Amino acid sequence: MTLPDGLDAALSAFAARRPLLVASDYDGVLAPLVGDPSDAVPEAGAAEALGRLAGIDGVTVAIVSGRGVADLQATSGLTGPFRWVGSHGAEFDGPLAGDLAARRDALAERLAPAVSRVPGARLEVKPASVAVHVREVPDRAAAAALLDEARSLADSSLTLKPGKEVLELAVTDADKGSALLRLAADLGAVATLYLGDDVTDEDAFRVLGEDDVTVKIGDGETAAAHRLPDTAAAVGLLDRLGALLS
User: Fold this and answer.
1) How far apart (Å, rounded) are the C-alpha atoms in residues 106 and 104?
2) What is the pTM (predicted TM-score) of this model?
3) In the chain, what is the greatest distance between 2 CA atoms, to the nearest angstrom?
4) Residue 31: which of 20, 40, 19, 22 has the closest Cα?
5) DSSP 8-state assignment for residue 38
6) What is the pLDDT of residues 114-151, one digit of tens each?
7) What does the alpha-carbon distance between residue 129 and residue 23 come to, in Å, rounded to a whole number?
């Protein structure tokens, strides 16, 4: 595919440096958004593109997601020498502390009655959060009201992470931006490429610097420097970067 001139120039400059961190969200970037997150399979060519990049000397590929790492690996089916960052950065090279699970379970119990009253709504329990999904709620007013009720049930110890047809309530204050900075520092990366599509990806877009490349997938306001329309275009970008790096 042909990338916008500004993005292609930024990729060319990025590819000339080493070591590099190439990181991406999963849902909405590497996989099209679907009603049931367990059905989110990778876009055609995504696995191959990521594998090629991960095999290049001086390049580290990371998958950064709001999903738990185990769920992300199982759902995506992606395998390779990737770094996995889950739960919006709360899962970073190791499991969560046990006390967080207890807080998460209590939160799920508090939210369950409200979710059960709305046909099509779904409660998802993740390693460090509970998510209220309304993508498949046919009554849009009821969907909005449910998200408002979930916000009202949250106490000050929780971190709210709104997304596309979902509200996630996290028991940690981790975010994708701080996780990316930490990973880049651990790797000694001189530049980072990050692809994201949702509100929580803005944390990453905002903290990355002028030597980095930030790409928003899809519509909506963003702090990213560049934009592509969809998941197929995101895979095209990864293919183009692979060609530049080779």
Assistant:
1) 5
2) 0.83
3) 55
4) 40
5) G
6) 999 999 999 999 888 899 999 999 999 999 999 999 99
7) 22
pLDDT at 93: 65
Catalytic residue among 25, 71, 201, 212: 25
Question: Which of 174, 166, 91, 177 shows the shortest CA–CA distance to 127?
Answer: 91
Strand partners of residue 27: 31
- Annotated active-site residue 25? The verdict is yes
131, containing H or E segment: strand 129-133
Residue pLDDT, tens place only, 3-54: 999 999 999 999 999 999 999 999 999 999 998 888 999 999 999 999 999 9
Q: Which of 33, 89, 36, 20 is nearest to 238 (CA)?
A: 20
Residue 113 to residue 139: CA distance in whole angstroms:
18
> Positive or negative, the Cα torsion across 22, 25, 27, 29?
negative
Pair of tokens at residue 71: 């769920």
> Helix crossing, 140-153 with 98-116: angle to 10°?
140
Residue with tokens 């006390």: 99
Antiparallel, parallel or unpaired: β 20-24 and 191-196: parallel
User: What HEC string does 45-93 produce?
Assistant: CHHHHHHHHHCCCCEEEEEECCCCHHHHHHHHCCCCCCEEEEHHHCEEC
Q: Is 189 left (phi over 0), alpha (psi -120 to 50) or beta?
A: beta
